[in-house]
Each structure stands twice: as structure tokens, then as C-alpha cells.
């Protein structure tokens, strides 16, 4: 089972701007990080799951890793955004591993991101025992 990672879409105002940024880079979008993930070999076939507004909301398949001239590492992503079932995720710095069995499911073609509750609201309702 491939391993994935989560990352906050901190420069993105919305899912639409994130999608536009990814699709504007047809050869692959590049995320830069200081260190190569220790478990990068397990990430073949995995994805980078995007966190926006306290929700895991979409993913981009990982194509590979390459070292930059300054010693940092690039995570090369496919230039597409796949919407997933929104799931609350608190903010964090950098990236975190996400095993496949804990990853949210992809939304079907007849589902839209608006069909599910935002992550913050989901978490509050869960704490109240309502979902």
C-alpha cells in the first residue's frame, strides 16, 4: 500500500486557485521541502493530500522526488487535483505521513466538494456526538 503525505495549501485562497496553480504546470508541480522524507520509497503511487480551511479536501498524485541545487528537495506532483471527502485536520507545519487506510476516499463524478461539511464544523459536531 502506498504511503501519502499531508500538507497545508498555505498560499492558496481556495481549491480553485490550488487547481489553477497545479494545472498551470503541465510538466509537474513542484513542492519544496528541506529534507527528503525518510519513507520516500514507500510513497511510489501515493499522493500529497491538501489541507485547506482545516480540512483535507483534495489530493495530487506524487510523481517523484529530486534534489535541488541548494540541497533542499522537490516533491514532483502530477498537475491535477482530485477532490476527496472532506475530513477535519488541524494545522501543522511541513508535511505528515498518511497511510492509505487512513486516507479519505475520492469523491465520485456525481459528488461535489460542497456536498460534505467543512472540516472545522465536522470536528465540532463530532465532539458533540452529532456525527
From TrEMBL:
Domain of life: Bacteria
Protein's UniProt name: DUF1489 family protein
Species name: Pontixanthobacter gangjinensis
Xref: InterPro entries: UCP032025 (IPR008320)
